[in-house]
Specification:
It is built from four helices and eight strands. It is an alpha+beta fold. It comes from Chordeiles acutipennis. This is RDM1 protein.
């Protein structure tokens, strides 16, 4: 007999599976693996604001300005030989686009949200199997395979490339 922990939770009777937030994932990892039993690092954090045309003149008058960041994170469990990656997008509204402090604050919120979601995404692919005697086994959940796990670090950093467009 054993217990299996997956960083997801089910809501209601609809069998809808929701990801645990990054704080809960870190708490579970610290509890079962120890504080030195895992690590995470941000591979890339890129500003992707304006890619959907929202910064065009018409868009500026019709909607609030928002800041968007794309983040790729790698989680490593060295004692178990497991590593996985997660990618996510974080977005925050800029209430007053004339205030530079408001822009910086919104940027930080978007970065933090993207990093948290990416960490949660990476943890969703890890199965923690807790045995009755307290030992923990770790498996990579291959049913959650995603492209970020198979890209090189350079490919992940180049996930979004900005090319200048000549409007003349």
């Amino acid at each position: 007999p054993g217990q299996v922990c997956v960083c997801t939770k089910q809501k209601g009777f609809q069998q809808q599976v929701l990801a645990l937030n990054s704080n809960k994932c870190q708490e579970l990892a610290n509890h079962y693996l120890g504080f030195n039993g895992w690590s995470s690092r941000i591979i890339t954090l890129q500003n992707v604001s304006g890619f959907d045309g929202e910064n065009e003149e018409l868009g500026k008058t019709l909607q609030k300005r928002s800041v968007k960041y794309l983040c790729a994170v790698e989680v490593t469990l060295p004692n178990h030989g497991v590593h996985t990656r997660g990618v996510a997008l974080g977005e925050a509204d800029v209430e007053n686009s004339e205030d530079p402090l408001e822009f910086v604050t919104a940027s930080r919120r978007a970065q933090k949200l993207a990093a948290g979601k990416a960490l949660s995404s990476a943890f969703q692919k890890i199965l923690l199997i807790v045995l009755e005697n307290g030992k923990v086994a770790v498996e990579y959940n291959s049913t959650q395979e995603e492209l970020p796990d198979f890209l090189t670090e350079e490919e992940l950093k180049g996930l979004v490339e900005v090319n200048p467009v000549d409007t003349e």
